[in-house]
Amino acid sequence: MIRYHFRTFILSCILTLFALTAGASVRLKDLVEFDGVRGNDLLGYGLVVGLDGTGDGIRNSPFTEDILSNILERLGVNVTGEQFRPRNVAAVIVTATLPPFARAGGRVDVTVSAIGDASSLLGGTLVMTPLNGADGAIYAVAQGAIIAGGAAAEGQAAREARGVPTSGSIPLGARVEREVDFELASLERIRLALRVPDFTTAFRIEERVNLEFNQRVATMTDSGTVELDLRNLKVASAAHALARIENLRIVPQMRARVVVDQRSGTIVIGEDVRISRVAVAQGGLTLRVEETPLVVQPNPFAQGETIVVPRTAAQIEDAPPLALAELQGGTTLSDIVAGLNALGVAPRDMIDILNSINAAGALHAELIVR
């Protein structure tokens, strides 16, 4: 029975277990962010045309009419006072990320999302849209055919959708018009910011970088920062120093975590999770309510009215009893999985079990519930 529940549980793909291999090394550039070497978010407001009757309703989205009028007037078409109700246009928000060291003339991907009542952006084309940075300056201009990742079909009384047809992307759809000023070559100190702060990982990075240059170059300032002093290094530039260290292999040290997603029923248990000795039993109740109304009619020649007599059957049943399972203290990840599956419960019930174990103080890990 235990083996059956375990196989069923794995094949259902509802509980996902990820365990880091002991002693697995990771490249330095996958653990840290180099200070100053980052992207910049861009935002724009534009118009999508060419939709097959799935655009905004102008009556419900007046801002679509405004931007369409502005574009036509810039093209020399006077639409003042005209009444037009196109269904093949939609107002959208355009977002993109300007990568570090992007140069004028380069291209970046953009994401397009409808903000009106358009039902689909499939087959649409984004009209030239300026993309602004946080300072309000225009850094890129986006335009092109949209690739929508969903589909929708609707009638007078029903609508069916797959994916999100009101959002799409344009690969390399924006051209960079302005560069972000950043002189990496002139830097004498560079900070490495850990994506997951940890004192042990930061100390290992410091040791490994100093070993690479055979001198004290790196200094750990806190759990999330390692500072590099490039003044005494015999390298051509800071870029050469970063290229030399970004592929160094580091063994990261992560906190023990159990991540629970209540919406999908997914449970992720880290390798270093441990529990104290505890016994677990799980059960529940089944509530069943059935409505079977009875229609009572009078005799054919009688003076009466047809009435509906309600009939309700309510029943509460106990769930089948489950044995008490004991989880030994200091067990490994595989032991925890085998112990939980020995109860033969569904993954969503396992979420409640993990919460109860944590409340009892027997779960030695950080429990994250989303």
From TrEMBL:
<keyword id="KW-0282">Flagellum</keyword>
<dbReference type="GO" id="GO:0030288">
    <property type="term" value="C:outer membrane-bounded periplasmic space"/>
</dbReference>
<keyword id="KW-0969">Cilium</keyword>
<dbReference type="GO" id="GO:0009428">
    <property type="term" value="C:bacterial-type flagellum basal body, distal rod, P ring"/>
</dbReference>
<keyword id="KW-0966">Cell projection</keyword>
<dbReference type="GO" id="GO:0071973">
    <property type="term" value="P:bacterial-type flagellum-dependent cell motility"/>
</dbReference>
<comment type="subunit">
    <text>The basal body constitutes a major portion of the flagellar organelle and consists of four rings (L,P,S, and M) mounted on a central rod.</text>
</comment>
<keyword id="KW-0732">Signal</keyword>
<dbReference type="InterPro" id="IPR001782">
    <property type="entry name" value="Flag_FlgI"/>
</dbReference>
<dbReference type="GO" id="GO:0005198">
    <property type="term" value="F:structural molecule activity"/>
</dbReference>
<keyword id="KW-0975">Bacterial flagellum</keyword>
<dbReference type="Pfam" id="PF02119">
    <property type="entry name" value="FlgI"/>
</dbReference>
<keyword id="KW-0574">Periplasm</keyword>
<comment type="similarity">
    <text>Belongs to the FlgI family.</text>
</comment>
<protein>
    <recommendedName>
        <fullName>Flagellar P-ring protein</fullName>
    </recommendedName>
</protein>
<comment type="function">
    <text>Assembles around the rod to form the L-ring and probably protects the motor/basal body from shearing forces during rotation.</text>
</comment>
